Amino acid sequence: MDSKVYSERRARYLQEMGGGVAILPAAEVMVRNNDVDHDYRQDSDFYYLTGFDEPSSVLLLSSEHPEHRAVIFLRKRDPERETWDGPLLGVERAKEVLGVDAAFPIDEIEKHLPDYLGDVRRLHYRLAVNPRFDQVVFRAMSAVRRKARTGISAPSEIIDLTRDLHEMRLHKSVHELEVMGQAAEISREAHHRAMLVAKPGVYEYEVEAEIMGVFRARGAERPAYGSIVGSGPNATILHHRRNDRLMQEGDLLLIDAGVELDYYASDVTRTFPVSGTFSDAQRAIYELVLEAEEAAVAAVRPGVEYTHVHQVALEILVRGMVELGLIEGPVDKALEEERYKPYYMHKTSHWLGMDVHDVGDYFVDKKPRLLQQGMVLTVEPGIYIRADAEVDPKYRGIGVRIEDDVAVTADGYLNLTAQIPKSVAALEAILAER
Ligand SMILES: [Mn+2]
User: Fold this and answer.
1) Domain around 254
2) Could you tell me if 405 and 299 lie in one domain?
3) Among the options 340, 384, 395, 413, which is catalytic?
4) Pick the catalytic residue: 80, 239, 280, 411?
5) Per the structure, how many domains does the chain have?
6) pLDDT tens digit sequence for 29-44
């Protein structure tokens, strides 16, 4: 992405934060074992403001320094290291490439930080996420305090940097929505591929491999989260991750998988019968979840409380559960006493963005947030009936979830994942082609 996008975000954040200095460290490298590291992914906040994916970097923003609004600390060029790990940006080119006002080697950060913090009242920093870097900040603070007798004062307020930054990230720009649309398209292709290969006699992990293959073949860096491929009774396990079961005739397969593209997530769930057609009991549960999902998606528009979307889905699910005899009525009593909980135990939505469970407050002053244009949320009702549930045996072991990614528009919603089939007829038509 153009470095202008990031410098504009930094300028906006400097405005929003209301004066002072902000410090954001890059994500740390995590050791996997011995001399092998986990795949590195930049911290979302850091990337949002820099577009820079190297570890051992720190961004400093200042509304007080006469010239330096944005300062980057990063690793020096190192020919020997670069032979192994590839080129580093380096201090010399950082100003131009990242569009910042100053760049210093990361190993000199402790020397420079106190200069930027002198006579600054507010420090914007998120404590207790990176304890090692907290110590760097604390040492800089005490270095400034030691200058008290020269008339230089240290910050008297430490404000959680995410207060203003996550509010910005919650509201997506047109450009961000475009990237999320592209991610949705890759996820569409992956789910379509999964529908073609998932059959009785195939292992769940074979389906997972096909999904990952599509993600990478389309140039995406990684999945947005570990793919859930749960067949038969595994469809009732919310975070099933082993994906190692051999699929059987008559199974439903629940796939919750979404790609991350250019640091933006998609998050999609589809459920379908591996044999190609739903049984009557499966169809009854599926149609109910679908009705709840479609009504909840349609309820997304600016000005409604985000909890309303959950409420719409929940009322339909509970009415249906009573009708099917899964729980005892009447509906209002079942809602009040949460009799649905054994079969629907999660909420219907979460924010979606750079993180799959994206940042942004759900409640403001203890009241549910009102949806606004540019917010993106998932809509994902489900019903999960464990194999040992005390219900009509024909419903046992059925798990269904349907999940779309929905952007709030000026007067309603845009379903980013609408192209991924979910009606019984559309699913059975695709499965019949195999
Ligand atoms: Mn989700």
Assistant:
1) 171-432
2) yes
3) 384
4) 239
5) 2
6) 999 999 899 999 999 9
